[in-house]
Design a protein that fits this description.
There is one protein chain. It is built from 13 helices and 21 strands. It is an alpha/beta fold. It has 2 domains: 87 residues, no CATH class; 328 residues, 3-Layer(aba) Sandwich (D-Maltodextrin-Binding Protein, domain 2). Strands 8, 9, 10, 11, 13, 14, 15, 16 and 19 form a 9-stranded mixed beta sheet that branches. A 3-stranded antiparallel beta sheet has the order 4-5-6, with no helix packed on it. Strands 12-17-18 form a 3-stranded mixed beta sheet. It is elongated, with a radius of gyration of 22 Å. 47% of the residues are buried.
Length: 427
C-alpha cells in the first residue's frame, strides 16, 4: 500500500524548506515508511520528529496521521495560501537518502561518567547543543559542555588545555599549530550553508553573484537600488536605501569560509583577502558570534550580513539566492548544501573544501565544520568520553543534523571520521 504525502505551502521565512526525513513505522503491519517534511519552529523539541506509535495511528508533533493514509506538512512558497500537490512513496521503499549505515565504535553510553568541556565555532553551536541534549538521555553520567566563542578562541582554548575539544570551521594555521600541546585530529561533523541574510521586507527575492557580494561587503556598492544590484534583479522593486553591512567582529571560521569563497569565486573583485578576521571598512558594523550578526541584521533596516542557516532561520531573516559556478541562482537549502559535499576532495587528515563547488544545484557558500581533539589524552576516562561523545555525534547525530539546519556527512566521509576515533589514546 502506498503512502500519500500532501505538500502544503507555508511562509518561506518560517520554515526549513526541503528538510525531510524518512522513518520505518515499526508498529505498522508491513513496516511502511513515513516521509515527513519539517516546518521551522524555534522549539528544538518540536523539530525532532519523535514518533509515537499506537495501534491505530502514528503521531508526529507536526501532523496527525493514520497508519495507511499519511499526511505531512512541508514548506513551499512565501504565500500563506496552500497550493497542494501529492507525492506517493512505495510501501517499504526509502523515501529519502541520508548518511550510510556506519555504526561506529561499540559504546556502552550508560557506563560513561565525567565531564567534557569544549568551545569554539558558533557556526556549529545549534547542532552541538541539540546533540549534547540528546546524548544526555542515553549517557546520563556524562556531562558535555560547549561554549560558542568563535573558531579562533576555540583553537586557543585547546592549545591552552582548558577544554578537551574545540569546534572550528577553519583549519589550524602554522602559528596556531606551534602552540598546540600535541598532534590534533580533525573530526568532520557536518556542513551548512553560509547565508547572505538581509532585512528588506519589500524585496521578497534577491539574487546576488560573488562579484556583487564582494562589492557590497567592501562598501563599493552602497545603496539597494544600485544599477549593479538592479541588473541581477530586474523584476525586484529595490528601495533607495543605504546598505548596512554587518560582519563578525570576533575571530570566526564563518568569516574564514565566507572570505575564502569570495577570494575563490570573485578573485578580481575581492581585495580583503581571507582569514578568521579581515580589515573591514570603517563604514561597516561588527557583531560577535553568528547570533550577534543575525540579531543586528534583524534590528537594522537595509542590513545585510553572512550568517549560518540555523541563526538566520531562528531570527526569521530573508536569505538571498547566490549565483553558483554553473551560473544558477541557488537558495541556501540543505539538499543544495549536500550537493556541494558530494564532489569535495577529502584530504588524508579529513579536511576538505566544498566552497564554490561545481554542479547545477550546488549552493556555493557551503562550509564544513569540525571538532578538534588531541591524539593523546591524559586518562582512559577522557578517551572513553571523547569516543562516546564523538561516536554519538557521527551516528545518531547525523540523523538529527538536518532537523536543525545542517547537512549530514556523506556516507564515505562519515565512515572515515568514525575510523579517526581509533587514533585517540592515552599518552
Amino acid at each position: 500500500m502506498a503512502l500519500i504525502l500532501t505538500r502544503v505551502t507555508l511562509p518561506r521565512r518560517e520554515c526549513w524548506r526541503d528538510v525531510c526525513r524518512s522513518f520505518t513505522v515499526s508498529g505498522s503491519p508491513r513496516n511502511h515508511r513515513l516521509l515527513a517534511c519539517l516546518p521551522y519552529t524555534s522549539d528544538i523539541a518540536a523539530r525532532r520528529l519523535k514518533l509515537r506509535i499506537t495501534r491505530k495511528s502514528v503521531t508526529l508533533p507536526i501532523a496527525l496521521t493514520a497508519v495507511f493514509g499519511l499526511t505531512a506538512t512541508a514548506c513551499g512558497s512565501d504565500s500563506n495560501e496552500g497550493s497542494a500537490s501529492s507525492t506517493t512513496a512505495a510501501s517499504g521503499a526509502d523515501a529519502t537518502t541520508t548518511t550510510g549505515a556506519a555504526t561506529g565504535l561499540d559504546i556502552d553510553y550508560a557506563s560513561l561518567t565525567g565531564t567534557l568541556n569544549g568551545s569554539g565555532s558558533s557556526f556549529q553551536d545549534s547542532l552541538q547543543q541539540t546533540i549534547i541534549g540528546e546524548l544526555a538521555e542515553v549517557a546520563p553520567g556524562l556531562t558535555v559542555n560547549y561554549a560558542k566563542s568563535g573558531s579562533s578562541a576555540g583553537k586557543a582554548d585547546l592549545a591552552g588545555n582548558t577544554v578537551q575539544f574545540a569546534g572550528t570551521d577553519s583549519l589550524i594555521k602554522d602559528e596556531e599549530q606551534a602552540k598546540m600541546a600535541g598532534d590534533v585530529l580533525y573530526i568532520p561533523i557536518a556542513a551548512a550553508p553560509i547565508t547572505i541574510s538581509y532585512n528588506l521586507p519589500e524585496v521578497e527575492e534577491l539574487n546576488l553573484s560573488a562579484d556583487l557580494i564582494a562589492k557590497i561587503f567592501q562598501t563599493e556598492v552602497t545603496t539597494w537600488n544600485d544599477p549593479a544590484i538592479a541588473a541581477e534583479n530586474p523584476d525586484a522593486e529595490l528601495p533607495d536605501a543605504t546598505i548596512a553591512v554587518v560582519h563578525r567582529s570576533d575571530g570566526s571560521g564563518t568569516t574564514n569560509n565566507f572570505t575564502k569563497y569570495l577570494k575563490k569565486a570573485a578573485p578580481e573583485a575581492w581585495k580583503l583577502g581571507s582569514g578568521d578576521s579581515v580589515e573591514w571598512s570603517p563604514a561597516t558594523m561588527g557583531a560577535e558570534k553568528s547570533s550577534g550578526v543575525s540579531s543586528l541584521i534583524a534590528s537594522t533596516p537595509g542590513a545585510v550580513g553572512y550568517v549560518d542557516l540555523a541563526d538566520s532561520v531562528s531570527t526569521k531573516l530573508q536569505r538571498a539566492l547566490v549565483k553558483n559556478s554553473a551560473g544558477n541562482y541557488i537558495e541556501p537549502l540543505l539538499p543544495n548544501t549536500s550537493a556541494a559535499l558530494d564532489g569535495a576532495e577529502i584530504a588524508e587528515d579529513l579536511t576538505y573544501d566544498p566552497l564554490n563547488a561545481g554542479g547545477e544545484e550546488t549552493y556555493p557558500i557551503t562550509a564544513p565544520t569540525w571538532v578538534l581533539v588531541y591524539v593523546k589524552q591524559p586518562s582512559q576516562e577522557v578517551v572513553d568520553n571523547l569516543k562516546g561523545y564523538l561516536t554519538y555525534f557521527l551516528t545518531e547525530g547525523q540523523k538529527i543534523a538536518p532537523t536543525v539546519g545542517y547537512a549530514a556527512l556523506p556516507a564515505a566521509l562519515q565512515e572515515k571520521a568514525l575510523a579517526q576515533l581509533d587514533k585517540i589514546t592515552v599518552g
